[in-house]
Each structure stands twice: as C-alpha cells, then as structure tokens.
Amino acid sequence: SNVLRMSSGVQIKPKAAIQKSKTSPLPCSPEPAIKPQPKPSDKLNPKTIDPFGVHSQPSSVFAATYAKGGIPCRLVHGSVKHRLRWECPPETVPFDPLLVTLAEGLRETKHPYTFVSKEGFKELLMVEGAAEKAVPLLPRLVPVLKAALAHSDEEVFGRGLDALVQLSAVVGPSLNDHLKHLLTNLSRRLTDKKFREKITVALQKLEQYGGKASVAVIKSKIPTYCS
User: Segment Disordered: which positions (predicted)?
Assistant: First the structure.
C-alpha cells in the first residue's frame, strides 16, 4: 500500500521509505577481523624479539658482563646467609679487568648485582698477592669508587665507602696520591647524621692504613677531621 502505481507502470517509493532504506544497516556487514594470537613458541623465535625494546639491552656495564658470564662467580642462596660460589679459585682470576668491573657493580641497585659486586670485590681483595695486583689498577678504580660515593642512593654510597676502606687496607699508602679525589663526597655526607659516625670511622681507617702522610690529605679536604 506504500507503493504508488503510476499510469506508466513505474513504481515509486514514498520519500519516507527511501530515507529509511538509506539509514538502515546492511544486513550482511562483514565481521571485524580477529587478530591472531601469538603462539607460545613465538617467544623463543629471535625474530619476534624487538632489538630496541626496553629489556633487550642490559642497563649497565656490570649487568652486561654478568649476563655474558664474564663474572666468574654466582650467588648461592642460603637459608640464613647468601654466599658466592666461584667457578675457579679467586686467586687464579686476573684482577684486570675483574676488580674494576666489580667496582662498577657497586652502583647497581638490583638483586643479585648488588650482592655479587659487593661480596666479589671484597673476596677478590682477600686473596694472596692482592696488593701487587690492585695497585696498578688504582688510576681506574678511583674514578669508579668516586662515582659510587657520589651516588644519590644511600645503599650505593654505603657499599662504596666499605669498598674504599677494603681497598685502603690492601694497598696502604699507595692510595694517598688518589685520596683527595674521593674525600670531597665524604665531606658532603658528613652533614648527614646517618653517615657521620660511619664516615668518621672510615677516615680513621684510611689514616691507619695510609700512615701519617694520609692525615695531611684528609685535613686538606675535611679540616674538621681529628687524627
């Protein structure tokens, strides 16, 4: 009844019917394409790994070396205390560049890098003949320790301070020529009550291991220090 029949036999739809047909959806609109889900095996395919991804590159020199197996010791979890397991006796390991690399790791803030770097640095300096091996590395070790002592993280600073005292105990007066480069950061931290006592004890250790010549160096940077 909505179709008008003309004398010529042509059928004309009413205007309302035409507009309705234009706005009505198509009955056979295609379904949206379903994105295929990746297979579990795709994760093992190197082609699916983004070489520029956030986790594709280690965040530091120490992390990269550790990932490649360049640190010959690993963390062993204990029920009470963690320890390191060396792949070979530490006295047979070349200090160059391992001692410098472990010092670089003192600035790490993630586990297990924090423990491996701190404990590895200490244990390597405990081997027989450590002094002869460490003294030639002082020009490279001092800038690395200086960076740890200047770090904003309190735990990093604490590890750097411990490492400095450990190094001083091994190399003795040989550290005096480099000591002035490390004392500026200690002087700044002396205003912090958390570290005042620890830094004072560390300075006394530096004097003990460095001898009388170290006192003049310490006082040049920290005039308030009392021998």
Answer: 1-46
3-state helix, strand, coil in the chain (%, to 5): 60, 5, 35
In this predicted model, what pLDDT tens digit does every residue of 76-130 receive, in sequence order?
A: 887 668 889 999 999 999 999 999 999 999 999 998 899 999 999 999 999 999 9
Architecture of domain 59-221: Alpha Horseshoe (1.25)
Collapsed DSSP state (helix, strand, coil) of residue 28: coil
Rg value, the chain, Cα: 34
Residue 80 pLDDT: 66
- Give CA–CA dist 94/100, Å, rounded: 11
Helix, strand, or coil (residue 24): coil
Quote the pTM value. 0.73
Where are the chain's structural domains?
A: 59-221
Integer CA distances (angstroms), 152 to 13, 71, 99, 100, 114, in order: 80, 26, 23, 21, 15
- Residue for token digits 């491996």? 116
HSE, side-chain direction, 13 A CA sphere, residue 184? 11
Torsion angle (degrees, nearest 10) of CA 146, 140, 106, 163: -70
Q: How far apart are CA 63 and CA 98, in angstroms?
A: 13
Residues paired with residue 76 on neighbouring β-strands, in sequence order: 83
CA distance 174 to 170: 9
